[in-house]
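Late entry, evening session. Most of the bench is empty. Finally got around to the prediction I had been postponing all week. Sequence below, unchanged from the version circulated by S.P.
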Amino acid sequence: MRNVRDYAIITASYWVFTLTDGALRMLVLFHLHELGYSPLQVVSLFVFYEFFGVITNLVGGLIGARFGLKSTLFSGLSLQILSCTVLALMAGQLTVPLVMAAQALSGIAKDLTKMSSKSYIKLVVPESDRSGLMKWVAILTGSKNALKGIGFFLGGLLLQTVGFRVANLWMAAALFVVLAVSVFLLPKAAGKSAAKVGVRQLISKDARVNWLSAARLFLFGSRDVWFVFALPIFLSAELGWSFAQSGSFLAAWVVGYGLVQALAPTFVGGRGKTRSAPNARGVTVWTALLLVPLVGLVSLLHLGVAPAVSLTLGLTAFGVIFAANSAVHSFLILHYAHGDRVALNVGFYYMANAAGRLAGTVLSGFVFQQAGMGSSGLVACLYVSIGFVLLSTALCFPLRAAERRAEVAA
């Protein structure tokens, strides 16, 4: 019961953090676009957010294994408080280096908090209960994404109502309350490795973890190459939507995505604890299916179908498939993770996730601008997304081979 209580506290902390993270993304994106920053300038501000996520997941896994997950969780919450506070205090004097530094802090904060929360599931669920692990992973990940979508809406709404400075102050205050509660209720050493952990253990020696991580890199790159920058700016600049409307549209998609992810065990997993749990073959199928909505969306845009209609249809189909695929991914990394080294394996995996987001973020701004912005820029980003999905699918085949070898060895 103590483990379940601790997991509930960490999950609640992650939920509050996720709300502020989604809101902060929209606040910075729309506020700086409103100030006249170019697409590449705005995207450059998020580069540190993603770049430091790559480093943080590796180092954070090591810190979590050495000192426990409480230390990484508290560090993440504290850094997000600092980021929001800096942006609030300097709201009238924002510069590119300042916002990049604040986004770097936020990126570190996000991945420390995420790694702590997801690693803790492995400590709560019995090793043999694969269907239970799938359920808990899906609930945490799905609820997180739904709340991030609400955060998108919240960010657009706050910018339009109370302004950039006050919105950041409110978020810093909410995070401080969560941090204070967690300090007194969580044990110190949960997730701490019994054996000495060194730098050499940062890189996983499990082929399944490595191939799954590589597939994850291109999977999330395929989403962010058009979703992070091209889509919201297209909605605002080309379709004339207000910040609140654009934020609401993106929020609705992310909330729906999160709900599908939370329900994923009912259609990607089985009822038995071992017999029909998701495996590498399932990842291969769900990844390849992403080509259907992407190709369909490109076709609709080329045919001149109303962009709002095309995007709604394409995003809905893409979101359902991507959510199911992501749920299977999140289950498999915890299933493959090794005992008290779970923080290291999860950290390495989400390092690849952050690298994919970094590549997608940079390409989103670069391709969108180079292709002429507007619908041509969005379509160009979608073509890059299709290429990333093909690469992710290809990487699933050696993953299947590694999984079979592991099963035989066991």
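Two things to note before I forget:
The CA atoms of residues 74 and 354 lie 20 Å apart.
Residues 270-275 have pLDDT under 50 and may be disordered.
Will write this up properly tomorrow.
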